[in-house]
Amino acid sequence: xxxxxxxxxxxxxxLLTICSISVxxxxxxKAFKPSFDYYAILDFETTYNDNVSLYTQKNIDDFExxxxxxxxxxxxxxxLIVSPTFKLYLVQDFTKFYEAKxxxxxxxxxxxxxxxxxxxxSYEVKLYNKFDxxxxxxxxxxxxxxxxVRDVWDNETRxxxxxxxxxxxxxxxxxxxxxxxxxxYTAEIRAxxxxxxxxxxxxxxxEYFYNEFFTEYDTKIDEFGIGIGYEFAKxxxxxxxxxxxxxxxxxxxxxxxxxxxTFDFDVSYQLRQIPFLRKVSAGYELEKVYxxxxxxxxxxxxxxxxxxxxxRWKFGLDARINKDVNVSFDYLFRKRKSKSxxxxxxRTEELADVKNYKNHQISLTFSYRYN
Length: 371
Hints:
With 371 residues, the protein is mostly beta strands. The chain has five helices and 14 strands. Strands 1-2-3-4-5-6-7-8-9-10-11-12-13-14 form a 14-stranded antiparallel barrel. Strand 7 and strand 8 form a beta hairpin. The longest helix is centred in the N-terminal third of the chain and has 22 residues. The chain is globular, with a radius of gyration of 23 Å. It starts with 5 loop residues before the first helix and ends with a strand.
């Protein structure tokens, strides 16, 4: 796997922290006496996920049979995930017209049954800038050092010679861990508009770096998004659209590059009259992914002419125990349906057998704020 230079990442984190602290310190010498604050939040999330590797039903049936265990690098296809998250905020009011906030976040996802392969961490540095209490400019950097997806057949391994035996690797040995590192940069502009509307624009640049068996999937993605929200009485509505373009490295017979449209609708209701309860929310997201492979279907059957439709339904309930402790319940259901316009009905069914999935997730999160 081509890995991001960890020294560069740590240097970036350190530089942002030093710059923020130095600006805060310098501002304190100014006559207007700006206010400075800091606080930390610890989130402890527990999630039940009924399909951690997003297997199709055919995969799950095969896994449960135990006949092809070498195809699967996990112990169970469902799992309980314990995810503590630590967030540190540094907040500076420079003037009554400008406020800056720096957030450092680390999340540590621990799988109870599949910890040997599935555990992973994610880190974020985010800088919020608020102008005149109406405009926001937010900048963020996120990094995931290692994420295991599943075991995947590797053609190059199957065609190679095992140096220990002097013969080709067997079919069982040709399944390798499909692993990537990921980093992405986000810039977002938000503005409050008249009549309780607000709008946002965002740009996200993402890079995937896969392990040595699957470097052909190394990817760069540009995403452009727009959104608008509206507040009415106790209701908040939000509609977002984004377009993503993926540039996949590819190889001589495969290209996973795609264009993607994402539509997102969210609504929430403030529960101000009910003790402890704060908000109930729901949402729906639709993704349409159009693969851009130039290879014919018989050469690149997994990507040529392929179109994915992904649905996500979300539900949430937030409660406040006291001023420092919050509890939230979240439910997510998602499913993917894949089809191809470049292959016949039989081949389309085969594509569905390896790509279509359903996934349920139920989460309970305790959040504690220290100030």
